Amino acid sequence: MAISDEFSQSLIPSFLYSSTKPLSGYDKSSMNANHHNVMPRSPSVSPSSSTKYLACDAGVNSGRILIPAPKEKIQMYSPAFYGACTMGGILSCGLTHTAVTPLDLVKCNMQIDPVKYKSISSGFGVLLREQGVKGLSKGWVPTLLGYSAQGACKFGFYEFFKKYYSDLAGPEYASKYKTLIYLAGSASAEVIADVALCPMEAVKVRVQTQPGFARGLSDGLPKFLQAEGFGGLFKGIVPLWGRQIPYTMMKFASFETIVELLYKHAIPTPKDKCSKPLQLGVSFAGGYIAGVFCAIVSHPADNLVSFLNNAKGATVGDAVKKMGLWGLFTRGLPLRIVMIGTLTGAQWGIYDAFKVFVGLPTTGGGALTPPPAEK
């Protein structure tokens, strides 16, 4: 279904991104008045060249008016833009979390049983002895499904809320308080994303940390529902919010700030003149640094989520009493820093790579306000 020009205009970002500006048009009257003087198409221009053109028939033989098309394949903040960001989020979160399933498996068991799983290396050793190599992939299906759903909501709604809040603030305040825009947009998106993640996260933790409970999602979900009912799938939603909302606020706000600083101080070339591989490298570096901060901020709640999903009927008070405040902040933290740093860097790299693939600019580092219109 065609989208009206007015609707498309209302969705175009005005404060947090600047988009490639197409040519404003051409003088039709002059073309009609003197069409025989229209220059023929240059033979050096080919359809396969990197610059594409729209051809307008002047009515004489093969004469053409050639107009450069916009570089972006998708208009910023159109419905197609949100769809692309949602798909990018699915790929970035679903693939990366599934890839680090062995690390996540060791981390969860270190949090639940630190006596048995004393360190990263010994944790891998225990799992290999007891469950074999195949055991290192336990829980990968709920991981893939849960974090794909979370990634779709996380990135798609972040882009939506970022524009929504910037429009509420207006151009001046959106530029002045851009970090608050990033924080509010990411927090709002994560509230929704965690509702999508929570059921699969509950099954994943139970499968990974209770030997003999289930082989995976197909038998684990029915057993979980039989034991705790449908409401049990959302038992960990509050601590999950406590883990993921600070994590995501740090992830997006610090990433946007770090990327901006990298382009400003570390890279002598303006972003729009940098190659795409360099821009994606900046995205990965910014994501990795942001991931270290994310891991530290969200780790206590991560311990709570693992504890509550492992023990039937457990409460937050039970977790604090058993683990202690120091244990909440430090148990499994080194492994989580390595895992989340790599994970977050890879997520931003994949997300921005997909955006580049569909013709969108990478995230962050661009002008916050569009340049003044030429007179």
CATH topology: Mitochondrial carrier fold
Q: Class by helix and strand content?
A: mainly alpha
CATH superfamily: Mitochondrial carrier domain
Gross CATH architecture: Alpha/alpha barrel
The CATH class name reads: Mainly Alpha
What is the distance, rounded to the nearest whole angstrom, between the alpha carbons of the first and last residues?
35 Å
- Give the strand line-up of the largest sheet: 1-2
Q: Tally the helices: what do you get?
A: 13
Number of strands: 2
Arithmetic mean of pLDDT:
80
Radius of gyration: 25 Å
What portion of residues is helical?
Answer: 55-70%
Q: Stretches where pLDDT falls below 50 for ≥5 residues?
A: 1-72, 367-375
Biggest beta sheet summary: 2 strands, antiparallel
Commentary on this structure:
The chain is built from 13 helices and two strands, in the order ααββααααααααααα. The protein is mainly alpha-helical and 375 residues long. The chain has a single domain, classed as Mitochondrial carrier domain (Mitochondrial carrier fold). It has a two-stranded antiparallel ribbon with strand order 1-2. A hairpin with a 6-residue loop joins β1 and β2 (64-68). α4 crosses α5, α6 (140-169) runs antiparallel to α8 and α10 (237-266) packs antiparallel against α11. It is globular, with a radius of gyration of 25 Å. The two termini are 35 Å apart. It is a multi-pass membrane protein.
Features:
about 375 residues; mainly alpha; Mitochondrial carrier fold; two-stranded antiparallel ribbon; 2 strands; globular; disordered N terminus
